[in-house]
Amino acid sequence: MLDPKQIETWIAAGLPCEHLSVDGDGHHFAAVIVSGEFAGLNRVKRQQRINAILKARFDSGELHALSMQTLTPEEWKANG
After folding, report:
1. Residue 79 above 90 pLDDT?
2. The pTM of the whole model exceeds 0.90
């Protein structure tokens, strides 16, 4: 069963994050990802960036489902 911490490691290896947390039950996961690299990107482009990082994991079936909240540091601070 996949551990949420492993997904955090994969994302962090491909994207500098100011905040990163992943929760899940071993099959379905939810991530909050805060990165300055999201500045100027819409929600779809941000999620595509994360999907590209995890592509091999999705393609192999190791990772099945990941919902994402992708924010810039400014958006993260504004959301409290």
Report:
1. no
2. yes
Residue with tokens 């099959």: 27
* Spatial distance between the Cα atoms of 50 and 41, rounded to a whole number of angstroms: 12
Token pair of 57, please?
């994991």
CA distances from 78 to 10, 15, 18, 73, 75 (A): 27, 21, 14, 9, 5
pLDDT digits (tens, 9 = 90+) for 36-62: 999 999 999 999 999 999 999 999 999
CA distance 41 to 21: 20
Query: CB neighbours of 52 closer than 8 A, spacing ≥ 6?
Result: 14
